[in-house]
Amino acid sequence: MSNPALITCGRFGRTLPEVQDRAARLATALAGVGVGPGDRVAIVMRNDVAFLEVTLAAGLIGAAPVPINWHWTGDDLAHALSDSGANVVVVHTDLLAAVRKRAKPDVAIVEAAVPSEISDAYGSKAPSTSGDFPLLQDWSTRPEPWSGPTPPAPMSVIYTSGTTGRAKGVLREPIRDEDRPHVVSTIAELWHLEPDGTTVVPAPLYHSAPNVHAMFAVAMGMNVHLMPKFDAEELLRLIEEHRVDSIQVVPTMLTRLLQLPKEKRNAYDVSSLKAIVHAAAPCPPHVKTQIIDWFGPIVSEYYGGAEIGAFTACSSAEFLAHPGTVGRPIKDADIRILDANGIEVPEGIDGQIYGRCFTGWPDFTYIGDPGKRENMERDGYLSLGDIGHVRDGYLYLSDRLTDMVVSGGVNIYPAEIEGCLLELDGVADVAVFGIPDADLGEVLAAYIEPSQGKEIDPGAVRAHVASRLARYKMPREVVITDSLPREDTGKLFKRLLREPYWRDERSLAPGESS
């Protein structure tokens, strides 16, 4: 008889039966304060085994878990708590002050003690609990396990990252019983999950992909190792110690792995790893190629979003044969490339990408804004706002529709210039976007983050672009900055860079420029 699956975070862990027992007791406690089918339970916690227990507990009584970005402390937190309609919020003690200030008086607060593995990861001392609210530990151990009915529960309500505006709550329907086998098998194939396998979840559980990844892995009986905070060398250590066979990461994590000194990269046995899956943001081709050279052809990518799931995938072999692609439609998914009038464009021509997810993936709406959901759809196909084209059956991303720059009547996709600049020696990260210009309407600005110990000459930047791209794609402004504002998924907050220009209608940026 095999050992029960293990769920860990840092050095702490529980067996899957222990996690399920605590979740069942917590479900009884939640029901005792009036939580039931259709209600929502907010979770303001860092990665923690208890995070998964709260998620499971909510589902047992038909309520939807609402993971909230714990970095949010002001209006963004208040918006998510209010917009979600959560009547209970479970929060780590060190995040309690912000929740206490922003939650409405009728919202019940349950306090979760901060485990030492989390405080250690963040280099802080675990605070004592406040004594003002019921403790998650008590609610997860004292009641009898839930014995009532278990109605279908919606999946977790995920708040989009807000990189282009205020975060929106994505409310998905429950997976129908008749669709569940197909959905599980499709996700397992896409993410290379196997029953009795072992996986690591290195990204925050308040994001869609790591949340779904963790919950599907738990449901399949896998060993699941949560990272309280991503650290490149620690990921390698976990792979070696637990003989991990699959991980799901974002491109920023791949970059950080490559930045490790060679002696650290070679110090760990990662031969157990069968799959590295990445998504959430574009991965520079040179980064992906180096990862394949290191780990072998076990790297795959998928394209999709919190709202509509995944609809294309790409293996290592496909990427090497078709550099830059994000793959072909998976199983019974489909894509269309449409112009502004909704007409399908010829192969090789850029247009807005519309996709239809695989059969059985639950439909969604935005909490409080169903009209926005309708605006994304054409004939049953949904768009995430990305621009791209299909060539030889493979999808290529060009840029986001909201990032497109119109300069003198010409459409410019910043991602092309960003890709060009990432080839320049010493460039670690780059953001290109449009700024106002009295003559052309918009011109380009490039913000560049140098690699550690490197200096970037704006003149060299312009010369590099001039040697590869058309003159109208040359950035007017070149700004060298210590770091770019990226979210932990790797998504770039261009809005934070762009807004000062458009708010003040200035032609020069704050900070160092050429």
Give the helix tally: 17
CATH architecture of the domain at 404-504: 2-Layer Sandwich
Runs in which pLDDT lies below 50 for 5 or more consecutive residues are 506-514
Indicate the overall shape: globular
CATH superfamily of the domain at 404-504: ANL, C-terminal domain
Query: Beta-strand percentage?
Result: 25-35%
CATH topology of the domain at 404-504: GMP Synthetase, Chain A, domain 3
Q: What is the β-strand count? A: 27
Radius of gyration: 23 Å
Separation of the first and last Cα atoms: 67 Å
Strand order of the largest sheet: 2-1-10-9-11-12-13-14-15-22-21-17-16
- How is the biggest beta sheet arranged? 13 strands, mixed
CATH top-level class of the domain at 404-504: Alpha Beta
Structural class: alpha/beta
Percent range of helical residues: 25-40%
Instruction: Name the average pLDDT.
Output: 91
What does this protein look like?
Helices cover 30% and strands 25% of the residues. The chain is of the alpha/beta class and 514 residues long. The protein has a domain of 101 residues: 2-Layer Sandwich (GMP Synthetase, Chain A, domain 3), CATH 3.30.300.30. Strands 2-1-10-9-11-12-13-14-15-22-21-17-16 form a 13-stranded mixed beta sheet, with helices on both faces. A hairpin with a 2-residue loop joins strand 19 and strand 20. Helix 1 crosses helix 2 and helix 10 crosses helix 12. The protein starts with 5 loop residues before the first strand and ends in a 10-residue tail after the last helix. The C terminus is likely disordered.
